[in-house]
Design brief:
With 279 residues, this protein is α/β, with parallel strands linked by helices. The protein has helices at residues 23-26, 30-34, 49-57, 77-83, 93-100, 120-124, 139-151, 169-174, 192-199, 219-222, 240-245, 263-274; strands at 2-6, 9-13, 43-47, 61-68, 88-91, 108-113, 129-133, 156-160, 184-187, 203-207, 214-215, 227-231, 248-251.
Length: 279
């Protein structure tokens, strides 16, 4: 690789796509990045200038940038200005596509260090409306739910260990970087998290269909001071033991014989109805 400095920045032209410094972008899986510094938190890849800026503003530490050369003095400039002396690898669009195996959104990737996850108690302190996701495995759904939660008055998100990693590249991209704007953490795959929430005086509502199900418009449900909205896996929904441990079971009224919505669509409806909006 040939390197040169532009306005004191460490800009490096890619000449060898097999360079070990580029392995985190080209041949490391998401799981390998997650475990990169075990037992310490690993690495994630953020994509596009807007998303990377949101991560930087949230205090995530950049390791390096990979970007299309035309963006160095264009859309990528604000990102570069915030990143200091980290390596900034640049190449034409077709070279980057060959290196990464996909077309970059807005021509920019940033490798960043993960943070140590906070406890559920830290995340939920002082919050009125929180979201719990149980075993939601599709990164696109994770990203869409996080974006809706951030936009529609949810205060925090808890992910069970069975969920897709909210810092997978696709989940971050679909969330438009809102995963860096809403508090979140990962909790154990058991009803232990329900015990923690009840200890913090939250009521829990399972989004599911049962004989005793109320609608999300139920006045008592909407009046709860602290409420955790619990959503389950695509297809199978919530586990029976999870529903049994919840204070409420609620559903979205349907028409035309439709029995349910995709979990991401259902989350947006539930958040709008049960959030902190003026009803």
């Amino acid at each position: 690789m040939n390197s040169y400095n532009m306005k004191s920045y460490n800009i490096i032209n890619i000449t060898d796509m097999n360079s070990p410094e580029l392995a985190i972008y080209s041949c490391r899986s998401e799981v390998q990045l997650l475990r990169y510094y075990e037992p310490n938190p690993g690495i994630f890849i953020a994509e596009s200038p807007k998303v990377v800026m949101r991560a930087l503003e949230a205090g995530y530490e950049p390791i390096s940038l990979l970007m299309e050369e035309k963006h160095v003095q264009g859309e990528g400039q604000p990102v570069i200005n915030m990143c200091g002396q980290i390596p900034i690898y640049v190449a034409p669009f077709d070279v980057l596509t060959k290196l990464t195996g996909f077309q970059l959104t807005r021509g920019l990737l940033c490798a960043m260090r993960r943070k140590k996850l906070p406890s559920p108690e830290e995340i939920c302190a002082g919050k009125r409306r929180i979201v719990v996701l149980e075993s939601v495995v599709n990164p696109t759904n994770i990203g869409a739910i996080v974006r809706s939660a951030s936009a529609l008055s949810m205060d925090a998100v808890l992910f069970t260990g069975g969920c897709s990693d909210p810092l997978y590249r696709r989940a971050i991209r679909v969330s438009m970087g809102t995963i860096f704007q809403i508090p979140w953490t990962v909790v154990a795959d058991s009803i232990d998290w329900q015990e923690k929430l009840h200890a913090m005086r939250y009521k829990t509502v399972a989004m599911a269909l049962r004989d005793n199900t109320c609608t999300i418009k139920d006045a008592k449900l909407m009046a709860e001071e602290r409420l955790a909205i619990v959503l389950g896996a695509e297809g199978d929904g919530l586990q029976s033991k999870t529903i049994d441990a919840c204070d409420y079971t609620a559903c979205i009224p349907m028409s035309h014989g439709v029995d349910s919505l995709n979990v991401a669509a259902a989350s947006a409806v539930a958040f709008w109805q049960l959030g902190n909006n003026e009803q």
